[in-house]
Amino acid sequence: MGIETENNSNRASTTTLIFTYGTLKRGFSNHVLMQDLIKSGDAVFNGIYRTVDNYPLVCGPYRVPFLLNLPDATGSHRVTGELYAVSSQGLSRLDELEGTSRDHYERLPIRVEPIDGRDAVFGVEAYYGHRSYAMEMWKRSGKRGYGVYGEKEAKGYVKRKDRPQNLSFLEQINVFVSSCSDN
């Protein structure tokens, strides 16, 4: 799902359009990675976008945001976020952060449009909560999602370094979705 662009050395390089909806956005804890990618020429901010379809956006353990690949689920919303064009090197770093090789998130296609209502953009991908726990995460949320991950939704977010280290993040997710208590 890449597009060909010219970089500073006039070599063609492939970029991928990535829709971010949580901690990678400006003003949130993991945006420092996006800033590093922008500084190195491995990412370009394209603007504020929203999903064409409704999706569940929920908070999991430690108030970590998860977009769930359950389009048009009752209680879901069009989700607002940021769109970036990311190089293959930058994409590798994002995949590592998002734990795609460890089944934390999976990068899949999504349809988005600029918030000003212009036509939808194609060839975009987003990091969804992995399918192995998505439905349980949705049930755990009470089947209520957010339209945006903002300051209110992020209140209580715990950075990775401050979380218990005796369980993997996937194990923490599994404990979260199997618990009977409400958010």
UniProtKB/TrEMBL annotation:
<dbReference type="InterPro" id="IPR039126">
    <property type="entry name" value="GGACT"/>
</dbReference>
<feature type="domain" description="Gamma-glutamylcyclotransferase AIG2-like">
    <location>
        <begin position="18"/>
        <end position="129"/>
    </location>
</feature>
<dbReference type="GO" id="GO:0005829">
    <property type="term" value="C:cytosol"/>
</dbReference>
<keyword id="KW-0808">Transferase</keyword>
<comment type="function">
    <text>Putative gamma-glutamylcyclotransferase.</text>
</comment>
<dbReference type="InterPro" id="IPR013024">
    <property type="entry name" value="GGCT-like"/>
</dbReference>
<dbReference type="GO" id="GO:0061929">
    <property type="term" value="F:gamma-glutamylaminecyclotransferase activity"/>
</dbReference>
<comment type="similarity">
    <text>Belongs to the gamma-glutamylcyclotransferase family.</text>
</comment>
<keyword id="KW-0012">Acyltransferase</keyword>
<dbReference type="Pfam" id="PF06094">
    <property type="entry name" value="GGACT"/>
</dbReference>
<dbReference type="InterPro" id="IPR009288">
    <property type="entry name" value="AIG2-like_dom"/>
</dbReference>
<dbReference type="GO" id="GO:0016746">
    <property type="term" value="F:acyltransferase activity"/>
</dbReference>
<protein>
    <recommendedName>
        <fullName>Gamma-glutamylcyclotransferase family protein</fullName>
    </recommendedName>
</protein>
<dbReference type="InterPro" id="IPR036568">
    <property type="entry name" value="GGCT-like_sf"/>
</dbReference>
<feature type="active site" description="Proton acceptor">
    <location>
        <position position="98"/>
    </location>
</feature>
